[in-house]
Structures are given as C-alpha cells and as structure tokens.
Amino acid sequence: MVQLQYDGSFEGLLTAVFVVYEYGYKEVDIKPEGAATTLLFGEEETIYTDADKAWRVLHKVEQRWGKAGVAILLRAFLSAETQIENHILEAIRLMVRMPEMNVLENFGHQAIAHIQKAAKSVSREVHRMKEFVRFERVGEVYFAQLTPQYDVLPLVIPHFKNRFSDQQWIIYDLRRCYGFVYDLEKVTTFTPANKQFGKLIERATDVYEQLWKTYFRHINIVERKNSKYQMRNMPKRYWRYLTELKD
Questions:
Q1: Strand, coil or helix: 232
Q2: How much is the pLDDT for 212?
Q3: Phi, psi dihedral angles at 98 (to 5 degrees)
Q4: 3-state SS string for 138-203
Q5: Per its UniProt entry, which superkingdom is the organism in (predicted)?
C-alpha cells in the first residue's frame, strides 16, 4: 500500500492520479494533508501539485467524458466526503480500462455511485447558495457571508460576478475562512490572517441590518404567515444568510 498525501486542491488530486500511473502503483490510498494516517505497513509519499501533470489528466477526462464529466468529478471532489479521492481514482481507472464506455453512467459500481451522489448533493447546495445569499452594504462594498455544507464558493462566484457586475462585493466562507472579492474588474480569492474577519465585518453592517429588519416587519402580513410552507421551501439552516430571518 502506498499512501499519497496531496495539498487538498483539485489540481493536487489530479497530480496524484498522474503519479499513480507514472509509477504504476496498484494499491493506493490518496488523502489530503492533515487527514493522512501513519501506515504500519507500506510507504507514504508527498505529492507536490504539478499544473502540467494535472492538466494532462484533466484533458484525458474531458476527451472521454466531456465538460459535463469534468464538472461531475469537480463537484464530487468539493463534497470533501471520506474516500472521495479514491473513488475518483477508481472512476478514472475504469475510464482507462473501458474507453468505449461512459463509466460515469454505471451506477451499479460503488465508486461511481458515490461520485454521482456527492456531485448531486453539491449541485443542490450551489443552487441554494445562489438563492439564499444576501449582501449587506459596508461602506462602498457589499458583503455576504455563508457557511455552506460543502466547499461550493468557487462554483457560485461566476453567478454573482455576472449578476452584480456593477457593484464591488466580498463573499466570505465562515467555515473555511476564505473568500472572494470583486473590484469591478476581476475576482480575487483571499484568506485573511484574522480568523475573526467575518465577525468584524458583521459588526459594521448592524445599521443596515436593522433598517432592513424594520422594513421587513412592516411589509410582513402576520395573518398569512405559514412556517411549515416556508421551511419546506427554504430549510432552516439557510436562514442565517437572510437578514430578515436572523435571530
């Protein structure tokens, strides 16, 4: 058994897949740094992300499965579910062994079933983030914070860039402590040194938040309130993103 430890990025995983074929490894366990375990029998190897090797694997996948197949693998990866790296490796191994088949449609295979289920869960989370994220004004910038179950921020950024192209904004993932900022020209990712970044910004939005809550209370018709219907269409865990429903 060879345990390959990579940096946790999608490019790093693809590099690890390339290394599996480069050295002809048979029994492999791919894990992100921090999740690796000490092996009693076997060896450990650190994988350093190589853009060229990652691109070669990605290009091969796109040739066989198209952009839709790449999207499925990426979304499954972003689920960060246990063993998802090894499921993706197994799917690519099947692709190489059976080039004439679209093995991603073989739901009877355990690895494929895991990948498709994870990708579907991430897709639902992406859709809900697009629906429920709310921006609050902080000076000249609009700020939104979220705590998604999956690491979907990279997948929702293009949506907000297109929709709010005339505004400067920041979207920040409180759980993973990183975000994206748009300056009217380009989107840049950032990781603040202060892990309390989200809470500091939140304090600055209190005035706008109270104004919006007051407005919401005035337009809300208490007699027509239907909590069960509301929760069915908007699960309670997303309420934290809606200014009017906080507290």
A1: helix
A2: 46
A3: -125, 70
A4: ECCEEEEEECCCCCCHHHHHHHHHHHCCCCCEEEEECCCCEEEEECCCCEEEECCCCCCHHHHHHH
A5: Bacteria
